[in-house]
Amino acid sequence: MNSLQTETRHIRPYVHYHCGCPDVNKPTTDLESEKEEETFDIDSPGIHFSTFPISKLYFCDDCHQIRCPRCVQEEIVCYYCPNCLFEVPTASVKSERNRCARNCFQCPICQNTLSVVASSEPQPTPSPISPTVPTVSATGAPYYLSCGVCRWDSQEIGMTFEKATGLALQLQKTEDERPDVKEFDHLKDQFEKHLRHNTPSTTLPSSLLSIPGMSGMNSFSSRYGNTGLAHSQQKSDDVEKYEAAVDKVEPENGLVDDLVHLTDVNQITTLTQRMNQLSDQPYKVERLQPQRIHLRTKRVKRCRSCRHILIKPEQKAQATRFKIKLVALKNIPKITIASLPKLILNQPTQIVLKFSNPLYEEISVDLTQEEIIIQEETTIQDDCGKPTLEKVTIGKVTILAPHFNITPYNEVLEYEEDLISSRRAAKADIGIYEKRGNSTSIILEITPLAEVEEFKFPLLVKYTSKNTENNENEGVTTEEKSSGETNSSKAITSDEIFADESNEVTKTLSFWTVIGLGNVIKAPTGTSGTTVKGPGSRTEPSGSKGSSSRGSNSANRSGTSSSKS
Amino acid sequence: MDESNSSSVPSGPTVDITVTPSIQQTSQAPRSTTPNTLGRSSPAPSVALPRRHSLYGTGEDRIVLDIGSLYIKAGFSGESRPRHIVPVYAGNMKFHWDPEFNGSGGVVKACGESCRVIGEFAELFDLEIGQYPDGLDALYDRLAHYLREIYFRYLLTDPKQRKVVLCESPMLPLKLKQLIAKVLFENLQVPSISFAPSHMLALLTTGCTTGLVIDVGHLETTVLPTFSARPLTPFIRTTPLAGRALTKRLKELLSAYGSMIIPPSKEQKPVHAKYLTPAVLEDIKTRFIFVSPMMISEASIGIAEKTLVEDMEDKYATVVSTSDVLYPFTISKRGRERQIGTLVVPGWIRERCAEVLFEGDEDESSVVGCALECLLKTPIHLRAPLASAILLIGGTTLLPNFQSRFGHELLRTLNTDRRFKSLSKLVGHIGFLEDTGSGKVFVANCRTWVGGSLIGSLKSTVIEISREKFNGQVPDWTTANLSKSDETEVEE
């Protein structure tokens, strides 16, 4: 890790879910993923590509598995401009260079959307920013593009329009006459002509034909190294002298002088600005031109193993609904960090993890390990300067309540927060911080033993849901259940409750998570930090996303709520 | 106008007929009257419609990829420039997609979408790839991620439907080449890949087939002579003095001689290393550095000797007139940029930082030395044609004034260095391809890609490995002659 970077960047706490992507065809890591069931290396370099926040994950009903962006297949169903929401027909997407062919442009300076403005009065004086550029038609044409964010406007570069619509079309002409386009077509003609003349007589290996990919694999291999031969054939097969189609292009004369006397950094384009104008990638800001806005797509996502559709958006560009939306948020327990005091070296600290159940069934969660010891392999130089691998213990995590139940999701309860919060687990449940609504919060005790930039630990979550077909029945008994549970030990409760309904379908799924808690600091004098009560009274989860995703949950489910209550 | 498109082009899979005649039309029609519609056809005139590439791109237009260690250039064949240059040096996907998670200054907003590339600086790959045992797996993931993004977010096309032209540098490790092929075939399921040598492709964009192609990229500089469209690979020379060495030098110089002002205090303090993030360095490098037109290094053995960082201020600071630049530091917090201070970049650093590329020693040849060593290895009768057709490609050569300084250094070295005495007759022959013909019509960092696009668009049988035939092996020029010896070749 680069300590240099982390100083300026605050590492946020997070809970990321691991997806093993068993169906991604990747033989090299097959062995690894098998091992992963028991051990899960949170320090492996691939971790960033296999763990995701829950909002990025899908859930395949048929495979009963988490699916991540890596193990879904995508199909584009619709192209549209994010600005005007115009749906672009598939046939013209590529010829429009994947950009909006109507009126949408992005600012060459700050990449925000430009708006078309009618010039109320003629502007005879060129803008002070680029005095060298003559505003050719500034007085003549009435419309120009203007950026509402950085105040750039297209009159600065002398770009004005006769009409307020179809701006892309008006610019198309200059676009087509760019020297690189001309030259490219000319080159293509030249080589095509050469190929046409040479293909009949392939008895001699034409050198151009032996460009890899141009003729047989054999000549591909012989091309390298056959230098003596090459010379003797020079006359017969070389391309005839090429005459460029365009005059010599010498962009940006005097650039060095300008750079020598540079005072304002904003006169030189940034890399981002240049990469938005690949035709010439100019150094000077006044050469930048507005670019059409890039199109976006709506995509269907399928599970790679069973080919079932996980995400299917509404085809229309304006619609934000999804016809099919199998996201992990609605199918697996959501874990949020509800309380996170500062982690202080060698001091046991209690954090609260909140598990929310998005299902309409009660689930029981099993965290398997009661104690997690985090070790890190570090190379340590010994006396002889030989690097040796050594395991250093970073910290210890104790889960006080590794088994617990979460009551089903019930949208009615969502609106009665006050009522539920009174049912707080007052006693009896060791390690359970709170139970309310469809969530259970548990206490974890963290003991950091090393000063690290990011304290993170793996957590294997296994949950079992019992699918009662009889939904109405469950809806009625929910409240009673939750109150009954809080009074008795949870493990026994779950057995008792489901003992008489043993003919139900039980589904179990286990997945790894990585929980990052930010940095560990040295103990400042006079701080205790062991109690959970102080920071814990903050009920809103600090692990971001908590509140917003719950909101969407309730919104999505509100349609079905009437049948439940 | 889009309505007219959809009505005249049938929106079913009954498509591909229009493509073949279109190319012939272009080549037969007189140049002056042919509208340049291929690949970038104007949407307006209905004449242009039959020229359009097929709806589903069954074979005619390919995806051209030039995968570098910092940037991937991607686009469609038959077009004169890549559609996108995607920075791939950032950390990982999570940071890439979480707009709240901004690193310091590392915000690169691309393609108009709100995807920002953020994170720790790391090249996509290194040339010494074998040294990292688990590096290949991580690289597979990174590459797969970026290529998926490129296909679905930038090119907006289904990888399964288009063949791929892959520009490959001759020094690309075989393992890496195999890995790229594996990602493309297994993860993205492209139908086929054609490999094309990058130097050769770049040369074709000048219309010439003979030249000394010098690629100054990020990881290293490669000099490859090409004669009559044949890359003379045995004579290839490389040196690690390239973009990465320049960044390193810039960082050293700025930490030693730069200063910064952080309000409210007004005094200049030495630069704290934490502010010199790779993103800041890359920004300074690509915007404010240029190659000095003056040579002042004394050259005892012809090629300028390396100067220690400690001696540089004495040597350069007094002989330049370049202005200092006040570079604002920004830190982005929750997606918003906030200026926290100003970095003073001394003018002499701006002008003299790139000296690192022209100073060499026995172990690391300078860029100029590397080119001359290459010439020294080539047969005598090829030297003059090669020396008169030098082509500089790669991102680092975009530094203003690079080519002119390169030419001067070349002449000086030829005149003074005893090692290259046998080359001294070339002095009158030195010439650059970009000084003739169409000049810098294509930007030097895209020339390879443009060549790939050219090759991909030519109507000819294109050699490719298809997905069905892919068994993990890729063509390798170092061993190809041996492994194919059982097959009869036409010229033997």
TrEMBL record, chain A:
UniProt biased composition (Low complexity): 542-565
Residue ranges, annotated region (Disordered): 469-489, 521-565
Cellular component terms per the entry's GO annotation: dynactin complex; stress fiber
Keyword tags: Acetylation, Coiled coil, Cytoplasm, Cytoskeleton, Isopeptide bond, Phosphoprotein, Ubl conjugation
Signal peptide (from-to): none
Pfam family, one: Dynactin_p62
Subcellular compartments: Cytoplasm, Cytoskeleton, Microtubule organizing center, Centrosome; Cytoplasm, Cytoskeleton, Stress fiber; Cytoplasm, Myofibril
Assembly, per entry: Subunit of dynactin, a multiprotein complex part of a tripartite complex with dynein and a adapter, such as BICDL1, BICD2 or HOOK3. The dynactin complex is built around ACTR1A/ACTB filament and consists of an actin-related filament composed of a shoulder domain, a pointed end and a barbed end. Its length is defined by its flexible shoulder domain. The soulder is composed of 2 DCTN1 subunits, 4 DCTN2 and 2 DCTN3. The 4 DCNT2 (via N-terminus) bind the ACTR1A filament and act as molecular rulers to determine the length. The pointed end is important for binding dynein-dynactin cargo adapters.
Family as reported in the entry's similarity comment: Belongs to the dynactin subunit 4 family.
UniProt name for this protein: Dynactin subunit 4
From TrEMBL, chain B:
InterPro entries referenced in this protein's UniProt entry, alphabetically: Actin, ATPase_NBD
SUPFAM superfamilies in UniProt: Actin-like ATPase domain
Gene3D superfamilies associated with the record: 3.30.420.40, Actin, Chain A, domain 4
Sequence ranges of Polar residues compositional bias: 1-44
One Pfam family matching this protein: Actin
Region feature Disordered, mapped onto this chain: 1-51
Record family assignment: Belongs to the actin family.
Name this protein carries in UniProt: 19018_t:CDS:1
